[in-house]
Design a protein that fits this description.
three-stranded antiparallel sheet; alpha+beta; 7 strands; 2 domains; binds zinc ion; four-stranded antiparallel sheet
């Protein structure tokens, strides 16, 4: 069997599904679709909520496998699991365990994704108050760090 990476698995994000209304603020569970179209796997997944004083709220999944709280769930081997369960099962991220080329590609993708976020996109989901600016600063820092890592790795290859 080919080596599987967490990066390639079908995944769902509780924050996105909450924003899209799939996860309702007071629900104990939600029907989650993993994948697209007729092949999609549909499962009832328990959810957890937290309400912040500033009016913002957060929803997480309970991992059906380990019962731990998780923002991301993925499908591997027909089972729905969190990242920790996958790591325990030996499924790693390409950035950490891939070949040199795979790691470089994954760093490049991360830089591109951060640039796209800074250019708009998902930042507009939370336009409320100072939070957008705060998030922007976090993203800019992440981008700078990712670019530095990328440059370091390029130098390593040349050496
Ligand atoms: Zn788990």
């Amino acid at each position: 069997m080919a080596r599987a990476y967490q990066d390639d698995l079908v995944s769902v994000n509780s924050a996105r599904l909450r924003a899209e209304g799939v996860i309702k603020p007071d629900a104990v569970s939600a029907t989650i679709r993993f994948g697209e179209g007729a092949d999609a796997l549909k499962r009832e997944v328990r959810v957890w909520h937290r309400q912040f004083r500033n009016g913002r709220a957060q929803s997480l999944f309970y991992c059906p496998h380990c019962q731990g709280k998780a923002q991301i769930l993925k499908v591997y081997d027909g089972r729905i699991q969190c990242r920790n369960c996958l790591r325990r099962a030996g499924v790693q991220f390409r950035a950490a365990y891939g070949t040199r080329e795979e790691r470089a590609q994954s760093r490049e993708k991360r830089v591109e994704a951060l640039k796209a976020k800074l250019a708009g996109g998902s930042l507009r989901v939370h336009p409320r108050g100072g939070r957008g600016i705060e998030r922007r600063r976090e993203l800019e820092l992440s981008l700078r760090r990712a670019e530095i890592r990328q440059r370091e790795k390029l130098l390593e290859v040349e050496r």
